[in-house]
Design goal:
The chain is an alpha/beta fold and 279 residues long. It folds into two domains: 86 residues, 3-Layer(aba) Sandwich (Rossmann fold); 122 residues, NAD(P)-binding Rossmann-like Domain (Rossmann fold, 3-Layer(aba) Sandwich). Helix content is 44%, strand content 16%. The protein is built from ten helices and ten strands. The strands form three sheets. The protein has a five-stranded parallel sheet with strand order 5-4-6-7-10. The protein has a three-stranded parallel sheet with strand order 2-1-3, sandwiched between helices. A two-stranded antiparallel ribbon has the order 8-9. Helix 2 crosses helix 10. The structure holds NADP nicotinamide-adenine-dinucleotide phosphate. The site of NADP nicotinamide-adenine-dinucleotide phosphate has 24 residues, from helix 10.
């Protein structure tokens, strides 16, 4: 089965839209998302445009603050303080990567954890790792929602995650531990990566290497979730060699049209959840 992330994301967006209409009718308020975009990096501009468009479609009040690439760190920190104190703003997102003069850690740590819709603030990271309620990074959250659509009971499954980034691999591992999976995290220094992948009932790949995972890395009947987005010539491909793996896995996400659409839908979900907690 090919997992249709586009369709699932649309279902999620519809649910969010309905809930926002109900909230608006009752309170005359809507969630607000402010994105800070620094510089002219083209992929960031595309991501932010998509986030803005999707937010507006579900009724979130979306605002983008743009800075030139030579803005000072102090100016951005001042703006974040302002947004932290602004009751109309339920979610704050600073689009990464940042220019050299701006310290990413300082910026992330300055965001009110209750408005940290990316789930990158150490408070949210710590809450997730402790198994408490946390704002969860959008991509792993999207992967979990897709997994739950095809496998209602994840308990006891062996999940192997390739990649250990703060953005993807680590939060994915925490989420699957919470679902009682047995989790293996692998990375660039893992020995016998192929053998580790072959043990997976659920294989999640977040590396950034086109077509890294081949058909002989995948156990028959397993579920494969491909987070990777890579440009190969004029095509976008994942980290999994889709054409050869799709006949071995029981379910697999395509790239594009798998995890990507769920990521933005989960950003909207996080923004709505922040609004509900703050109001
Ligand atoms: P990242 O921060 O660069 O981390 C990559 C991870 O992969 C690292 O842990 C690295 O190991 C590991 N790795 C690199 N080469 C490897 C290899 N040959 N074998 C095994 N492990 C290897 O990347 P990221 O931010 O997590 O992003 C990963 C991919 O997901 C990228 O293609 C990115 O574009 C994509 N992405 C997609 C979405 C979406 O919505 N679908 C969202 C975010 C990112 P070390 O730790 O040892 O270096």
């Amino acid at each position: 089965m090919i997992i249709d992330g586009k369709k699932e994301a649309q279902i999620l967006r519809e649910e969010i839209k309905k809930e926002i209409i109900t909230i608006k009718n009752k309170t005359n308020k809507v969630p607000g998302l402010t994105v800070i975009l620094i510089g002219d990096f083209v992929p960031s501009q595309i991501y932010v445009r998509n986030k803005e468009k999707n937010s507006k479609e579900v009724g979130i009040n979306s605002n983008v603050i743009r800075y030139s690439k030579d803005v000072t760190e102090d100016e951005v920190l001042k703006k974040i303080q302002e947004l932290n104190n602004n009751k109309e703003v339920s979610g704050i997102l600073v689009q990464l990567p940042l220019p050299q003069q701006i310290n990413k850690e300082k910026i992330i740590n300055s965001i009110d954890p209750a408005k940290d819709v990316d789930g990158f603030h150490p408070v949210n990271v710590g809450n997730l790792a402790s198994g408490y309620n946390a704002i969860v990074p959008c991509t792993p959250l999207g992967c979990l929602l897709l997994l739950k659509k095809i496998e209602t009971n994840l308990s006891g499954k062996h999940a192997v995650i390739v990649g250990r980034s703060n953005l993807n691999g680590k939060p994915m591992a925490q989420l699957l531990l919470k679902e009682n999976c047995t989790v293996t995290i692998t990375h660039s220094k893992t020995k016998n990566l192929k053998e580790e992948c072959l043990k997976a009932d659920i294989l999640i790949v977040a590396v950034g290497v086109a077509n890294l995972v081949k058909k002989d890395w995948v156990k028959k009947g397993s579920i494969v979730v491909d987070i990777g987005i890579n440009k190969l010539g004029d095509k976008i491909v994942g980290d999994v060699s889709f054409e050869e793996v799709k006949d071995i896995a029981s379910s697999i996400t395509p790239v594009p049209g798998g995890v990507g659409p769920m990521t933005i839908a989960c950003l909207l979900k996080n923004t709505l959840n922040c609004f509900k907690k703050l109001n």
